[in-house]
Hints:
Blueprint: E1 6-9, H1 14-24, E2 30-33, H2 50-65, E3 69-78, H3 99-109, E4 117-127, E5 133-144, E6 160-162, E7 167-168, H4 174-180, H5 182-192, H6 194-204
Parallel strand pairs: 1-2, 1-3
Antiparallel strand pairs: 3-4, 4-5, 5-6, 6-7
Helix pairs in contact: 1-5, 4-5
The protein binds inosine 5'-triphosphate (ITT).
Amino acid sequence: MNNLTTLVIATGNSGKTAEIEALLKNFPVKIKNLKDFGPIPHIEEDGDSFDDNAYKKASFASRVLGLPALADDSGLLVEALSGAPGVLSARYVGENATDEERCAKLLFEMKGKSNRKAAFECVISIAVPAGNALTYVGRCEGLIAEKPSGTNGFGYDPIFYYPSLNKTFAEMSMEEKSSVSHRGKALAELKSEFSKVLVWINQNMPDTDKFNVIQGCEKTDIIIR
Ligand code: ITT
């Protein structure tokens, strides 16, 4: 038990943390999240794609903490809004808005639109301090509801309707949502090859005696690949 590999879930979103921790809980890995450490510098999510941002968050956290780190970048793409809010999903109404405000803005933009098709996308990146990374992706298609329903989950869950279960994501339990969601699919792929992932992490982790953890850095913009 003592030799378990540590994996840091590098997200500040408590909804994501809960879903990822629940899915990985019986896996042979010691899960930590950012709250287990002191404050770490903020990283600008200025990539053009979920892939860029997921890699940026995972590799930065991994270098700062000197541990393997898993980050998720995800968002909602609405067909009638040309893919918006997309990579800007978290900042659709500015930096400090609430989930309710983001849902309200999206419903406002969708007023009168008959094409309600939308999809959640998720990219999971697992990185080691040297910058090498593994990537997993997941996508889930649904419709934008006419009004919010349900109180579970987070983000746009109350307005994301999943037709084959006849529920919004916010009307599902966490397990039910994860069985069909973008994040659940990406993590299922990761879980299906988890033993290989552990070997990869251990082969790619530096000898801790030689490795210099970046400490006390200020807001930085590092691109490693
Ligand atoms: P971290 O970067 O710290 O992980 P974040 O909330 O800023 O947290 P993102 O930049 O990836 O994360 O933004 C994703 C946004 O997309 C998120 O804030 C939600 O508004 C939305 N989102 C992603 N996955 C979702 C899900 O499963 N259910 C509802 N909304 C989701």
